[in-house]
Design a protein that fits this description.
By secondary structure, this protein is mainly beta. Helices cover about 0% and strands about 50% of the residues.
């Protein structure tokens, strides 16, 4: 019954913006930590950002700090990733993930549920 549905991917020029959304449903979904990961062509899945359920603390991969913002709306059961100042290196399939995480928010192995992925392409 757990489901993560992503949307908002598409095309953008360098310097542009996109906002990704992840609509979550399932038991106790409001108490899960949430994260965003991405996977570019020929690359491993990479941590992008995470947000904790209790206090809303956020974590970011170094290359996106100051450009990306993760947030959530509990009433809407939705997690967002606002991406500004996009660069061609941001091109990837972006995945929403959920899990009960107490340490190491940066590892994909610690997340239990995943969305289908949404393509983000940034051109020069």
């Amino acid at each position: 019954q757990v489901e993560l549905v992503e949307s908002g991917g598409g095309l953008a020029q360098a310097g542009g913006s996109l906002r990704l959304s992840c609509a979550a449903s399932g038991p106790s979904v409001g108490y899960w930590d949430m994260g965003w990961f991405r996977q570019g062509p020929g690359k491993d899945r990479e941590f992008v950002a995470a947000i904790t359920w209790r206090d809303g603390n956020t974590y970011y991969e170094d290359s996106v700090k100051g450009r990306f913002t993760i947030s959530k709306n509990r009433a809407m059961m939705t997690v967002y990733l606002q991406m500004n100042s996009l660069e061609p290196e941001d091109t990837a399939v972006y995945f929403c993930a959920a899990g009960r995480i107490y340490s190491d928010y940066f590892s994909s192995k610690n997340y239990d549920y995943w969305g289908q992925g949404t393509q983000v392409t940034v051109s020069s």
